[in-house]
């Protein structure tokens, strides 16, 4: 490993986590009023806001309209101050475009698209602060926002990343661990049905270790699912409670 | 502005209310809506602030970077404004949809700060003609509920207050200069915001004018006057905006109330920021409230 | 930022020779013995030359000259809105303000920079209230302004020039718009500042240094544009606005005369 | 009645009262009639004895298509449902730049609308007289030819010869004598006056 020791001999990571420990996740649904659904998630120092609009009429050119299912439209953008070095543009660069595409593919797979033919659902993701795992946080935030908007989903989508250092798989890697050059595996799963909707791996990893890392990442997704699920239930009970009291 | 279409009846309702100094949400003509400010919300910036004014929501992040000063002004640092309207606010802002509004806001901010008294840019200079701090002030709109200009200026001022630029020591060799950055988080340079302006937007609705127009009121407004007002009630910028025109008397009236409102706004903002600083043990909540 | 790929650009980094002037940025006093450096009194505007209709292929055009500030404006339309996104049922005006590359001390780029874009918006806002937009629904009028030489007060001159061109084009207007600018320098208000008198944000220190630009529709007594720069006391600002209004009213008859004469000449 | 008074935009012409009405090129504000153009002031007395004040500019008037205007247009594109045209002049005024117009199948003629076949009514290149039905959408103005006086005025045959009308739905080439289908306009004398 170059310079930095990502995993100490005692088995702790740079930020003091154990290999299979997620960062602290805090989230909130219904941050904004104007959007149909919105959510905010903090995974350690990665902070993401997501807003969902729709389903509504297809905007812009009608040629985009799909006659048998809803058009899922995503936009991923990063605040110019979100990264360590200032970004020149919040979106439109290659990485953001790629991320936009990945988000679209992910949510195309989980939204019950056939329910809203000839319509459009917008998912806008805004990264306010980035410290690794941007895709994962974006997916998790967007899932919560979709739930807040009341859009029918097959299941939650939870995404989690994992790395592999010193023969140990580490889950939910931070920016520092991402930039170490080691392998990075990103997976988005449907936790209940244990299906994978998105899987990406960078850098080199021995075939034998793949399943180990994947297991760790899938486990991470399930853990995230527990947290998200709790947040959703809390939110719903709070909302229904306030509804009950206003009546 | 984000488009809202209202019926004539609705507009008349708002108009009549304003005539009676009673607005649709119960405010008087010179009252602001509820505002929440929190500083230091984004940890990897030099300074940041979040402002929520009713349902206008924005985040300001300031990043200080080292650069070379402009040749016109070799002894000063620079500030650069950048505004981004997130599509989170409204789908119209998707892609480049919010760009026009964003440029407009950043132009007004630049105008309000384009004088040598608002900020001490000299203090941002490290080596004259060679090195200086460039403050990138980035405003990110997350929700639009009217009066974006005022909210942005309040956010900028709060973020500047929060800005902590690491102290720099210059070691001079024969002809080589070396810059050393302090990594002690408390060995920092603060920015004096005492004379920084806030923008007050006065919207002319019917024969009267209001401050802090909501989105609905903005839809009824033909022309507005934006003023950069400092705590000493000097004016750092004026800009008439919108497709209507104003007669001279009403401009003077608007300037008068802008001056008064701006003074109060600046004073309460400063006291709020100082209070927050004192009780800085309070946990930052950000969007998790 | 789109890059200009059509032209061969000069070296990427060039320096403006004026930066090397020994007293480059300290220009000394603006007023000596109650006179400005070009010999004018503080409240004296420069002589004005106006001429409508010199660009023959345009629907309307106008040229304005205030000593060394020279602006030309062309008006086209009302024509169809090409871009679908710009569509609106009401009439529209577009403004494109450009400093000719050679017009200023500093070389200007071929593409609009942010200052020019800002001026375009200000011009548009100054003219929009004056034009009867409902007379050309679904269509737009395009204005192109080029500053041929900039010796201060370019925006004010452009406002006057543009309204003259619109009138020449026969676009129906509520009133002509007259532009005027002043420089505030301590207690003094300098009308129609030239380039060296103009306010620059970086060099001037202290309160009550700044500039005000105003657009007035004199006949119906409406202000269509008002911008200021620099930190000013409240009373100074109102005084400056009043001075601008007075100055606009002085220029207004000149504008009217010029249009009347041009019509007479034609017949 | 013409006067030699010259007006410029924003110039107060006179007070409005019961006898004076503001006409073209003027507007009323706070009880006065103002001019909106550079031009001469004209006054006209209408039927009920009121005087209309107008300002007429010497320039060709700025016109944009508005409802019920008779326009001359060139057909640029024909398909089964509609044809696209570019509007060349409005009434007597020739446009400097064309406006886009659309003529839908159901607006071609007043009767038997469902039997209209676009290809038997118009061909690209035809010059038609049409009426503006509505301002239409972002793309174009909506035109109509559902009157006897409206329809194809000038057309060329497949071989390129000029054609003359032989019935309300047919034209004949002067060179080859071949017949082609068109929605022919029964051109009124006043239209001929226009083109001269």
TrEMBL record, chain A:
It holds the Pfam family RNase_PH. Component of the RNA exosome core complex (Exo-9), composed of EXOSC1, EXOSC2, EXOSC3, EXOSC4, EXOSC5, EXOSC6, EXOSC7, EXOSC8 and EXOSC9; within the complex interacts with EXOSC2, EXOSC7 and EXOSC9. The catalytically inactive RNA exosome core complex (Exo-9) associates with the catalytic subunit EXOSC10/RRP6. Exo-9 may associate with DIS3 to form the nucleolar exosome complex, or DIS3L to form the cytoplasmic exosome complex. It comes from the Eukaryota. GO terms for molecular function: RNA binding. This is Exosome complex component RRP41. One of its GO terms (cellular component) is nucleolus. Belongs to the RNase PH family. It is found in: Cytoplasm; Nucleus, Nucleolus; Nucleus, Nucleoplasm. GO terms for biological process: nuclear mRNA surveillance; poly(A)-dependent snoRNA 3'-end processing; rRNA catabolic process; rRNA processing; U4 snRNA 3'-end processing. Its main location: cytoplasm. Residues 21-152, 155-220 form the Exoribonuclease phosphorolytic domain. The keyword Zinc does not apply. The keyword Transcription does not apply. PANTHER family: EXOSOME COMPLEX COMPONENT (PTHR11953), EXOSOME COMPLEX COMPONENT RRP41 (PTHR11953:SF0). Keywords: Acetylation, Cytoplasm, Nucleus, RNA-binding, rRNA processing. InterPro entries: ExoRNase_PH_dom1 (IPR001247), ExoRNase_PH_dom2 (IPR015847), ExoRNase_PH_dom2_sf (IPR036345), PNPase/RNase_PH_dom_sf (IPR027408), Ribosomal_Su5_D2-typ_SF (IPR020568), RNase_PH (IPR050080). SUPFAM superfamilies: Ribonuclease PH domain 2-like, Ribosomal protein S5 domain 2-like.
UniProtKB/TrEMBL annotation, chain B:
It comes from the Eukaryota. GO terms for cellular component: cytoplasmic exosome (RNase complex); nuclear exosome (RNase complex); nucleolus. The keyword RNA-binding applies. GO terms for biological process: exonucleolytic trimming to generate mature 3'-end of 5.8S rRNA from tricistronic rRNA transcript (SSU-rRNA, 5.8S rRNA, LSU-rRNA); nuclear mRNA surveillance; nuclear polyadenylation-dependent rRNA catabolic process; rRNA catabolic process; TRAMP-dependent tRNA surveillance pathway; U1 snRNA 3'-end processing; U4 snRNA 3'-end processing; U5 snRNA 3'-end processing. GO terms for molecular function: mRNA 3'-UTR AU-rich region binding. InterPro entries: ExoRNase_PH_dom1, ExoRNase_PH_dom2, ExoRNase_PH_dom2_sf, Exosome_comp_Rrp42_subfam, PNPase/RNase_PH_dom_sf, Ribosomal_Su5_D2-typ_SF. Keywords: Acetylation, Cytoplasm, Exosome, Nucleus, RNA-binding, rRNA processing. Residues 32-166, 197-260 form the Exoribonuclease phosphorolytic domain. It is found in: Cytoplasm; Nucleus, Nucleolus. Belongs to the RNase PH family. This is Exosome component 7. It comes from Lottia gigantea (Giant owl limpet).
From TrEMBL, chain C:
It is found in: Cytoplasm; Nucleus, Nucleolus. This is Exosome complex component MTR3. Belongs to the RNase PH family. SUPFAM superfamilies: Ribonuclease PH domain 2-like (SSF55666), Ribosomal protein S5 domain 2-like (SSF54211). The keyword Nucleus applies. Non-catalytic component of the RNA exosome complex which has 3'->5' exoribonuclease activity and participates in a multitude of cellular RNA processing and degradation events. One of its GO terms (molecular function) is RNA binding. Signal peptide: none annotated. Component of the RNA exosome complex. It holds the Pfam family RNase_PH. Residues 44-172 form the Exoribonuclease phosphorolytic domain. One of its GO terms (cellular component) is nucleolus. GO terms for biological process: nuclear mRNA surveillance; poly(A)-dependent snoRNA 3'-end processing; rRNA catabolic process; rRNA processing; U4 snRNA 3'-end processing. Keywords: Cytoplasm, Exosome, Nucleus, RNA-binding, rRNA processing.
UniProtKB/TrEMBL annotation, chain D:
It is found in: Nucleus, Nucleolus. Residues 6-41 form the Exosome complex component N-terminal domain. Pfam families: ECR1_N (PF14382), EXOSC1 (PF10447). InterPro entries: Csl4, EXOSC1_C, Exosome_cplx_N_dom, NA-bd_OB-fold. The keyword ATP-binding does not apply. It comes from the Eukaryota. The keyword Aminoacyl-tRNA synthetase does not apply. SUPFAM superfamilies: Nucleic acid-binding proteins, Ribosomal L27 protein-like. Signal peptide: none annotated. GO terms for biological process: RNA processing. Its main location: nucleus. This is Exosome complex component CSL4.
């Amino acid at each position: 490993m170059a310079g930095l020791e990502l995993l100490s001999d005692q088995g702790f990571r740079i930020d003091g986590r154990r290999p299979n420990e997620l960062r602290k996740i805090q989230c909130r649904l219904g941050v904004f009023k104007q959007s149909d659904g919105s959510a905010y998630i903090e995974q350690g120092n990665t902070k993401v806001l997501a807003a969902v609009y729709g389903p509504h009429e297809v905007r812009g050119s009608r040629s985009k309209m799909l006659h048998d299912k809803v058009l899922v439209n995503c936009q991923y953008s990063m605040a110019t101050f979100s990264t360590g070095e200032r970004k020149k543009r919040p979106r439109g660069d290659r990485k953001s475009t790629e991320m936009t595409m990945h988000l679209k593919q992910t949510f195309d797979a989980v939204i019950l698209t056939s329910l809203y033919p000839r319509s459009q659902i917008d998912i806008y993701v805004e990264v306010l602060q980035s410290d690794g795992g941007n895709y994962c946080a974006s997916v998790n935030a967007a899932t919560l926002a979709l739930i807040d908007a009341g859009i029918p989903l097959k299941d939650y989508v939870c995404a989690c990343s994992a790395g592999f250092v010193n023969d140990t798989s580490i889950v939910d890697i931070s920016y520092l661990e991402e930039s170490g050059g080691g392998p990075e595996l990103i997976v988005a799963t449907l936790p209940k049905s244990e299906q994978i909707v998105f899987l990406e791996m960078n850098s080199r990893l021995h075939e034998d270790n793949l399943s180990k890392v994947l297991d760790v990442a899938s486990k991470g997704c399930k853990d995230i699912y527990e947290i998200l699920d709790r947040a959703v239930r809390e939110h719903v009970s709070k909302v229904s409670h306030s509804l009950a009291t206003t009546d | 502005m984000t488009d809202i279409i209202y019926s004539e009846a609705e507009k008349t309702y708002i108009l009549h209310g304003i005539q009676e100094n009673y607005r649709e949400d119960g405010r008087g003509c010179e009252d602001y809506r509820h505002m929440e400010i929190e500083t230091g919300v984004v940890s990897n910036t030099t300074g940041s602030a979040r402002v929520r004014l009713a349902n206008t929501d924005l985040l300001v992040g300031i990043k200080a970077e080292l650069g070379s000063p402009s040749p016109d002004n070799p002894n000063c640092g620079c500030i650069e404004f950048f505004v981004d309207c997130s599509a989170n606010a409204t789908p119209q802002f998707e892609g480049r949809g919010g760009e026009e509004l964003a440029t407009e806001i950043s132009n007004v901010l630049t105008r309000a700060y384009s004088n040598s008294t608002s900020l001490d840019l000299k203090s941002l200079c490290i080596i004259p003609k060679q090195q200086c701090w460039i403050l990138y002030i980035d405003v990110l709109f997350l929700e639009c509920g009217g009066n974006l200009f005022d909210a942005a200026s309040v956010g900028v001022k709060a973020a500047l207050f929060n800005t902590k630029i690491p102290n720099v020591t210059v070691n001079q060799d024969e002809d080589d200069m070396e810059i050393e950055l302090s990594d002690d988080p408390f060995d920092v340079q603060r920015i004096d915001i005492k004379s920084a302006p806030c923008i007050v937007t006065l919207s002319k609705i019917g024969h009267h004018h209001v401050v802090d127009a909501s989105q609905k009121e903005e839809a009824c407004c033909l022309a507005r006057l934006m003023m950069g007002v400092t705590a000493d009630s000097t004016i750092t910028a004026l800009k008439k905006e919108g497709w209507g025109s104003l007669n001279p008397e009403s401009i003077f009236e608007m300037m008068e109330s802008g001056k008064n409102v701006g003074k109060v706004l600046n004073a309460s903002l400063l006291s709020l920021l100082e209070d927050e600083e004192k009780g800085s043990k309070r946990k930052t909540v950000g969007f998790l409230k | 930022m789109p890059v200009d790929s059509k032209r061969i650009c000069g070296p990427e980094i060039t320096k403006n020779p004026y930066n090397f002037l020994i007293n480059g940025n300290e220009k000394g006093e603006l007023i000596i013995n109650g006179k400005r450096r070009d010999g004018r009194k503080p409240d004296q505007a420069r002589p004005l030359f106006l001429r409508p209709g010199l660009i023959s292929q345009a629907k309307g055009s106008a040229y304005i000259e205030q000593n060394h500030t020279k602006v030309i404006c062309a008006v086209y339309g009302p024509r169809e809105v090409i871009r679908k996104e710009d569509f609106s049922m009401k009439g529209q005006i577009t403004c494109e303000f450009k400093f000719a590359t050679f017009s200023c001390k500093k070389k200007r780029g071929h593409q609009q920079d942010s200052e020019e874009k800002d001026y375009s918006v200000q011009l548009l806002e100054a003219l929009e209230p004056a034009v009867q937009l409902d007379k050309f629904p679904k269509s737009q009028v395009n204005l192109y302004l080029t500053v041929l030489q900039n010796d201060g007060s370019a925006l004010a001159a452009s406002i006057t020039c543009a309204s003259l061109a619109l009138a020449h084009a026969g676009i129906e207007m509520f009133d002509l718009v007259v532009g005027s600018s002043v420089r505030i320098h301590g207690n003094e208000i300098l009308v129609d500042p030239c380039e060296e008198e103009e306010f620059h944000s970086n060099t001037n220190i202290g309160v009550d240094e700044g500039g005000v630009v105003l657009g007035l529709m004199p006949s119906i007594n409406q202000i269509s544009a008002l911008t200021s720069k620099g930190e000013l006391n409240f009373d100074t600002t109102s005084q400056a606005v009043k001075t601008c209004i007075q100055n606009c009213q002085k220029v207004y008859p000149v504008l009217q005369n010029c249009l009347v004469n041009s019509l007479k000449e034609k017949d | 009645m013409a006067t030699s008074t010259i007006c410029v935009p924003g110039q107060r012409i006179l007070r409005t009262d019961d006898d004076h009405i503001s006409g073209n090129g003027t507007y009323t504000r706070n009880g006065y009639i103002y001019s909106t153009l550079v031009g001469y002031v004209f006054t006209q007395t209408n039927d009920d004895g009121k005087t209309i004040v107008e300002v007429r500019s010497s320039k060709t008037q700025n016109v944009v298509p508005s409802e019920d205007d008779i326009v001359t247009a060139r057909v640029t594109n024909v398909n089964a449902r509609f044809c696209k045209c570019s509007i060349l002049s409005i009434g007597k005024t020739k446009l400097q730049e064309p406006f886009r117009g659309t003529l839908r199948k159901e607006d071609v003629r007043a009767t038997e609308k469902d039997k209209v076949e676009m290809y038997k009514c118009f061909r690209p290149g035809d010059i038609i007289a049409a009426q503006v039905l509505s301002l239409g959408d972002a793309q174009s103005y909506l035109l109509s030819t559902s009157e006897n006086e409206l329809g194809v005025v000038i057309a060329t045959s497949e071989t390129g010869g000029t054609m003359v009308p032989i019935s309300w739905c047919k034209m004949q080439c002067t060179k080859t004598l071949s017949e082609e289908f068109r929605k022919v306009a029964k051109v009124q004398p006043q239209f001929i006056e226009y083109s001269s």
